[in-house]
Amino acid sequence: MSVSFAVWVLVLAVIVGALVLDLFVFHRDAHEVSIREAGVSSAIWVSLGLAFGVAVWMFAGSQPAGEYFAGYLIEKALSVENIFVFALILGYFKVPAKYQHRVLFFGVLGALVLRAVFIAAGASLLERFHWTVYFFGAFLVFTAVKMLRHKDQSMDPGRNPLVRVLRKIMPVTDEYHGQKFTVRANDLSSAEIAHIEAGGSKVKAGMRVATPMLAVLVAIETSDVIFAVDSIPAIFAVTDDTFIVFTSNAFAILGLRALYFLLAGAMDKLRYLKVGLAGVLGFVGVKMLVSGAYKIPIVVSLVVIVALLVVATWASLRADSRERRVLEEGRVLSKV
């Protein structure tokens, strides 16, 4: 799909405008995001993403629109995996609920920039070395198998290499100072300075000291790079149109923060979601591997992806309901 420079500028303006409204209007003051607010925000972001897909349909036709919706769905589904990691990172660093939106906002902003770099690199590789499509396909199949075999894989945010580097580059206080990522040493209490210096870092008057918010942001950006390694090749399995790949990525992850606040407390109920995501990765990997002999129609891709996610969600909710029923029956019997 041929896209003019003006269209790129317009789309980027819409994305930046939406982010500015979100940060400086709707979340200007730090507050804990409620389930209701998260639900409304999620509905708005999803509506924006779907509206863009409709616009692609109107101006470019059904094929590019189908590719956009497939890419959007893949990225939206895979981004749910990020929520597990976000919950782990925010819990590990004990980020106050009212500050979580701010750090996730900048995490998503960084993710947009990183995804743009990944997409440009991926597009260049596929254009110059077509055989890399088979490498990406094999990598996605390998990732799917790995995801199935390591369903309960955990991580320790404190052992993140970049977080360790941050602690070596500049002093890091363990105390939060509102939503600030860094503070002047003059603003630290004597107890904070003593604690930092006890850890081996020297604190001088006037120097900048990182707060835990910056360490959290580094951990979140690192996790997004890891997930982008899976999601970017997955969308290239659907289309090699750079505009479609970027916009489907961008509009999907724009609503990631709202989705986190909406689903973070219910992630334990979606026990089979990783199986469904592994199925999606495996399918798009196979799609890339067979692309030289047969191109799977975009409609078939959409149906398969939706079916895998619906079945995984249904099975998870059914298993959770059955487990709660068994527990309830056990309580009743214990009272008899």
Q: What is this structure, in a nutshell?
A:
The protein is mainly alpha-helical and 336 residues long.
Helical percentage: over 70%
Total helices: the number is: 12
> What is the tally of beta strands?
2
User: Helix- and strand-based class?
Assistant: mainly alpha
Overall shape: it is globular
Q: How far apart, in Å, are the first and last alpha carbons?
A: 69 Å
Determine the oligomeric state from the structure. Answer: single chain
Low-confidence stretches: none
Note the main sheet. Answer: 2 strands, antiparallel
Whole-number average pLDDT?
84
The H/E string reads: HHHHHHEHEHHHHH
Which range does the strand content fall in?
under 5%
Radius of gyration, in Å, reads 22 Å
Give me the side-by-side strand order of the main sheet.
1-2
Could you explain how this protein is built, in words?
Helices cover 74% and strands 2% of the residues. It has 12 helices and 2 strands. The protein is globular. The model has no long low-confidence stretch (mean pLDDT 84).
